[in-house]
Amino acid sequence: MIEYATSGTCSTKVQFELKEGKVYSVSFDGGCRGNLQALGILVEGMDAGELVKKLRGLQCGKKGTSCGDQLAAAVEQYSQTA
Question: What residues have CB less than 8 Å from 10, skipping those under 6 apart?
């Protein structure tokens, strides 16, 4: 399980697994529970590159980032090192 400390969001951490270039078992600590559970369900089994394309740059209010953007950053970082 990969753990990534989020920055600039209500959530404080995201956990996920990368297997053969796909994302699984996404969960967040903190944040909007229902929305983040839904996000985890929607991206389950998604190709890492596709997830990054879809979620990178999304903003929550005036924060300049979002939980989805932070997930994309984490997936991008760890898929390059895998």
Answer: 30, 31, 32, 60, 67
- Of 37, 76, 78, 34, nearest in space to 57 by CA: 76
Q: What integer pLDDT is reported at residue 21 of this predicted model?
A: 94
Q: For residue 3, give the H/E element and its range.
A: strand 2-5
Q: What is the pLDDT of residue 81?
A: 66
CA dihedral 40, 48, 53, 37 (to 10 degrees): 0
Give CA–CA dist 34/52, Å, rounded: 21
Q: Edge to edge, what strands does the sheet with 11-19 contain?
A: 2-5, 11-19, 22-30
pTM more than 0.90: yes
- 3-class SS of residue 6: coil
